[in-house]
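Hi Y.,

Following your request, here is the sequence exactly as I used it, all 177 residues.
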Amino acid sequence: MRTSARSDVSRLMLRLTYAVDTWKCIYPKQAYSSVGGGFERDFMTEIIEPSVDIMAFAKLDKRHALKIPYRDEHGILREYEVDFLIKTKDTIYLVETKGDRDMEKATVAVKARAARRWCEIASGVKPPIEQPEKWEYLLISEGLFKQNRHLSFEPFIPVCRNLRDHVIKTYESSVNS
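Below is the corresponding structure, written out as C-alpha cells. Let me know if you'd prefer a different format.
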C-alpha cells in the first residue's frame, strides 16, 4: 500500500473484502468493520468520496494517535477514538457514526461532550502546518444518515450538529435532575 510522509502509520493491515477504494485519503483503501460496518462503508462511499466540499479524510483506527481523554459516566478516565477525520477548506471535522440502538447510551453523550470540548480547545491552537484552524465534532446516527443519504457533506453538518447537541443536552438534563 502507498504511504505518505503525512502519516506515521507506515502500513495498514486490512481485509480487502471489508475495505473501500478511496481517492481523498493518503491510503488507497479504507477498512470498515466486518461486523455492523455497513453504515461506515456507506458513509464513505455515498457521502465522503463524492462530496466536493471534502478535501481529505481518514477512517481512524487504533494505530492512529488521536485519542480524546474523557471520564465515563462512572468517573473512570478513558480514551475516545473517533471514527473519521474529515478535512474541508475551512474546518477539520471529527465525525462519529453510531447505530440507532446506541444513541440512548450515556457513553455516547459523554464522549460527544468530551470531543466537542477537545475541538473547542484545538481550534484555539495555531497548527504547525498549513491546515484549517477550526475543528468541530459531529455525530451521525444511522437513521439520520438513511433519511439524508442523498445530501453531500456540507448540508449534513447542521443536521449532525443538532443531533450532537440534543444528545449532550438530554444527557446533561438527566444527570442534573
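Helices lie at 38-48, 106-122, 142-148, 153-176.

Thanks again,
Q.
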